[in-house]
């Protein structure tokens, strides 16, 4: 197109063709940038799923460590440290991504303008100083290089050698051969120098994905041997599950024996319970025999399986208790042997051997509370209250009992100055700023008394009636005329109880004395 003499029309056509080629190249570049952006989104979404999967795996591990600390406790501690290391590394990379993209405005979906991220100067300026790696670039490179070594130091023999080799290869930072340059380039130059920003962001997201994959691989590899061992039939534990923990004389003991790791497809070759053959079903065997005499009885036998051509016998060990039929109810006050008027006295009411849903209790002021056998008794007038209880036995018969409780009023509180009851000493200045309170020492309930009024008396001065719980100006004026050794009496203290819905009449409050020093 550049040779020979061209007409103006041909020159125009050639120019338009060059513009078309340039536009085509520009469009192709935008498509490539968009492709990197889409890939980055996919990697970020995948990382979120990996985080959820890793969190779930760790929760399962934590539960195993709680149930069996001797087996899984040490490995859980190693995984916790590796997860903390991985999070620190991932957060560091995320901060780099935030730093180099903070100048770009995201769209409504939170996506960056990928087609505008064609320059690489932001990453180059961060990771390089001229032809050399910058201080920040060296920190980034060191974290990648040190990550596998730190995992190896934490995991030790718990991380398999072949798994460790894969991790080291995944985070290798050795020089890389470049076909374009025809020479080995440093890992930093090969991966980050001169690339469009969106390409470098995508590589950083992929590095985060490698960290999460490593975390997942370490957990899976660390417990693979444990899972294989637990899958063996020798790890199943037969568990005796009676219908209830105690039986009455004359009842039939019913229940079942299940395996600790229940598998509906697992059927035993035979089951022997207390010397008798029991029919084996899917992962369990039901049994039934007479309860016997009152007392504790053992349930013994074996679960027998075929495994690798051999019979594996798992021992059955359990017990049950036979108790006589109840003739009286178990009624007890949770606080003491009396109940207090105006308060919701917590009580536990039950019949031995009878479930809570088949027990009925009644008394004036008695209401149900949260929990099996839990009640609140708020007695009214009188000096005693009778609690009646009825229980329904498994055979439909009813048993009943009753018990009487004494009703007492709440004792009167004691006045206090600055938290001290009885007689206290100190300067006038302390009394002027102290709060007048009321306390009920050594009482079974924690009651909060609020002082609403009191009388303030200085020797030789007129008594001052104060509304509230602190001395007023009249008190201070009278106190100013008191001398050393004078005893100030605070009496006729009126109080009310806060935090209790019942309208409780509080008995008279004891006075408190303050000696001036």
Plain-language structure description:
The protein is an alpha+beta fold and 517 residues long. It contains 9 helices and 29 strands. The chain has helices at residues 8-67, 69-101, 121-127, 135-155, 161-170, 187-192, 197-231, 428-433, 473-480; strands at 128-129, 132-133, 176-178, 183-185, 238-242, 246-248, 252-259, 270-273, 276-278, 280-281, 284-290, 295-307, 310-323, 330-333, 338-340, 345-350, 359-362, 366-368, 374-377, 384-392, 398-408, 414-417, 420-421, 423-426, 436-439, 448-457, 464-467, 487-498, 512-516. Helix 1 (8-67) packs antiparallel against helix 2 and helix 2 packs antiparallel against helix 4 (135-155). 36% of the residues lie in helices and 31% in strands.
Helix-strand layout with pairing:
Elements (H helix, E strand, L loop, with lengths): L7 H60 L1 H33 L19 H7 E2 L2 E2 L1 H21 L5 H10 L5 E3 L4 E3 L1 H6 L4 H35 L6 E5 L3 E3 L3 E8 L10 E4 L2 E3 L1 E2 L2 E7 L4 E13 L2 E14 L6 E4 L4 E3 L4 E6 L8 E4 L3 E3 L5 E4 L6 E9 L5 E11 L5 E4 L2 E2 L1 E4 L1 H6 L2 E4 L8 E10 L6 E4 L5 H8 L6 E12 L13 E5 L1
Parallel strand pairs: 6-13, 15-21, 24-29
Antiparallel strand pairs: 1-2, 3-4, 5-7, 7-11, 8-9, 8-12, 10-11, 12-13, 14-16, 16-19, 17-20, 18-19, 20-21, 22-23, 22-25, 26-27, 26-28, 28-29
Helix pairs in contact: 1-2, 1-7, 2-4, 2-7
Overall morphology:
flat
Main sheet makeup: 5 strands, mixed
Could you tell me how far the N terminus lies from the C terminus, measured between alpha carbons in angstroms? 114 Å
Oligomeric nature of the chains: single chain
Mean pLDDT rating: 81
Helix-strand makeup class:
alpha+beta
In percent, how helical is the residue content? Answer: 25-40%
